[in-house]
TrEMBL record:
This is (African queen) hypothetical protein. One of its GO terms (cellular component) is membrane. The chain crosses the membrane at residues 35-59, 79-95, 107-126, 132-151, 172-194, 214-237, 309-327, 339-360, 372-401, 475-493. One of its GO terms (molecular function) is acetyl-CoA transmembrane transporter activity. It comes from the Eukaryota. The keyword Transmembrane helix applies. One of its GO terms (biological process) is acetyl-CoA transmembrane transport. It is a multi-pass membrane protein. Its main location: membrane. InterPro entries: AcetylCoA_trans_1-like, AmpG_permease/AT-1, MFS_trans_sf. Pfam families: Acatn. The keyword DNA damage does not apply. The lineage of its organism: Eukaryota, Metazoa, Ecdysozoa, Arthropoda, Hexapoda.
Length: 515
């Protein structure tokens, strides 16, 4: 049950400089400021991601359909497909300004300006009791915002390898994880809490008010100016090592690098082992999509305060930090995906458990909000889900590291992560889209007997005739059953296929021996 849509840092490949692994003992003395800059840049990157996760929660009780939620879910795709333009960002630059700053500075300015402009219109776009939300505008603007954030991620990832001393480049992935987590927390958890009148009146105020401490407009305005001001400081005061002297030669080399990068990707994709793994990654999460994408929205629809759902992520942050250490002994052997296979059926069970909780929620909630016993049940289910999810995540990352050809390790890992991310996104989008089509309604309280409220036109017709659209069969429960069956059927094929690819020799994954 994915109650947050946290964007995780999947590029955890071994950091390499000039083709040689970094073995020197870390010594951050002299790199303290650089580490702080990286942490801040990654934190900024997490803000748009967090807001993109918060907006569906804001919209859930504003009359939008799940089909519209599916459309908005495309805003999460840019980070999953950034590999498509990463070679361009890496290869084309203005040497006098800096290889990474060429992209970082204008992109962050665009994010800041975009947030400021959005702050002037976002309240109107979110709609009101009289006006429906402008879903197309919201989707396009947040899609562009996340596209820019993904481009910033490419630039910062590359800059981290040269900003830090050779012996400290291993800290880049830590900065990535901690910074993005902090940014997502600010944009998702903190924003939903401070935006909620319920949360602010209960915990932060002595005199209740009808609004929260912040609005989406004020939040966007604040962070828009933060982007602009801090980017100006970075543009002026933070310099890159100018390792490219001849501009003409560097541009020519850059174009060759782009072509070579795409050729390299094509060579990797042609490997039979990679094709099989791609099929596994692209289809494996179909059984989880109902619980991952829909259950959180259904709980909000049932009356659970959205800020309570967001706050569930807070206690798990320390757990997510120590879990890789705990799971290391299960993922460092010859078959790291064995842990993945053990967690798979347990994660499938989250779907029916979430469906039961959604069905019981209206009767378990009181007028004053969720009780502590209800929150304990919700937290237990969330911890169970996140434990299964993280076991699978750590295992698949370990397998990627094991099979990636060292000659092209970064490209190889990024490609596999891209496929894995897409394998998460498309089922979630499909799950949201299918809810409306699997839900059966009827118009009660009017003379329109044949009206099934199957379209916005029929819904409006029902209301105009004094009726109400009541759900007879909720598509969420149908979808949970479909996903559960599909998941266990997939497991019959997936278990054999995964066992087979884990036994493949390393030569099956290396591109040099397959040319």
């Amino acid at each position: 049950m994915s109650l947050t849509k946290r964007k995780r840092s999947h590029e955890k490949e071994e950091l390499i400089e000039n083709g040689d692994p970094v073995f020197n003992q870390s010594n951050i003395k002299g790199d303290e400021l650089n580490i702080a800059v990286l942490l801040f840049l990654y934190t900024l990157q997490g803000i748009p991601l967090g807001l993109a996760g918060a907006v569906p929660m804001l919209l859930q009780n504003r009359g939008i359909t799940y089909t519209q939620q599916a459309e908005f879910s495309f805003v999460n795709w840019p980070f999953s497909v950034k590999l498509l333009w990463a070679p361009i960002v890496d290869a084309l630059f203005w040497p006098k300004f800096g290889r990474r700053k060429t992209w970082l500075v204008p992109v962050q300015y665009l994010i800041g300006i975009g947030m400021i402009l959005m702050s002037t219109c976002i309240t109107d776009w979110l709609g009101s009791e009289e006006k429906a939300p402008s879903m197309m505008i919201l989707t396009v603007t947040f899609l562009l915002l996340n596209f820019l954030a993904a481009t910033q991620d490419i630039a910062v990832d590359g800059w981290a390898l040269t900003m830090l001393k050779r012996c400290n480049v291993g800290h880049a992935s830590t900065c990535n994880t901690v910074g993005q987590t902090a940014g997502f927390f600010l944009g998702y958890v903190l924003f939903l809490a401070l935006e909620s009148p319920y949360f602010c009146n209960k915990y932060l105020r002595t005199v209740p008010e009808e609004t929260g401490l912040v609005t989406l407009a004020s939040f966007l305005l604040f962070w828009g100016w933060v982007f602009i001001v801090t980017t100006t400081f970075i543009a002026i005061f933070k310099h890159e090592a100018n390792d490219t002297v001849n501009t003409k030669e560097s541009q020519t080399k850059g174009m060759k690098d782009i072509v070579n990068a795409y050729k390299q990707l094509y060579t990797i994709v042609k490997l039979p082992a990679v094709r099989t793994l791609t099929l596994v990654l692209f289809t494996a999460k179909l059984g989880f999509c109902a619980s991952d994408a829909v259950s959180g929205l259904k709980l909000v629809e049932a009356g659970v305060p959205r800020e309570d759902l967001a706050l569930l992520a807070v206690p798990l942050v320390p757990v997510q930090i120590i879990m890789p250490v705990i799971l290391a002994k299960h993922t460092t052997g010859p078959a790291p995906l064995s842990l993945w296979l053990r967690a798979f059926p347990l994660r499938l069970l989250v779907g029916p458990l979430a469906a039961i909780l959604v069905a019981l929620t209206p009767t378990l909630l009181s007028d004053s909000g969720p009780s502590y016993s209800y929150l304990f049940i919700l937290m237990s289910l969330y911890v169970f889900h996140q434990t299964c999810l993280y076991c699978m995540f750590v295992a698949v990352m370990a397998f990627f590291a094991k099979v990636s050809d060292p000659a092209v390790g970064g490209t190889y890992m990024t490609l596999l992560n891209t496929v894995s991310n897409l394998g998460t996104n498309w089922p979630n989008t499909l799950a949201l889209w299918a809810i409306d089509h699997l839900t059966f309604k009827s118009c009660s309280g009017s003379t329109l007997i044949d009206n099934t409220c199957a379209s916005p036109l029929e819904t409006e017709e029902c209301k105009s005739n004094g009726g109400t659209c009541n759900i007879r069969i909720d598509g969420f429960y149908i979808e949970v059953v479909i996903c559960l069956i599909a998941g266990f059927l997939w497991l019959q094929w997936g278990r054999k296929t995964i066992s087979r690819i884990q036994r493949l020799p390393s030569s099956s994954w290396q591109i040099n021996r397959n040319r």
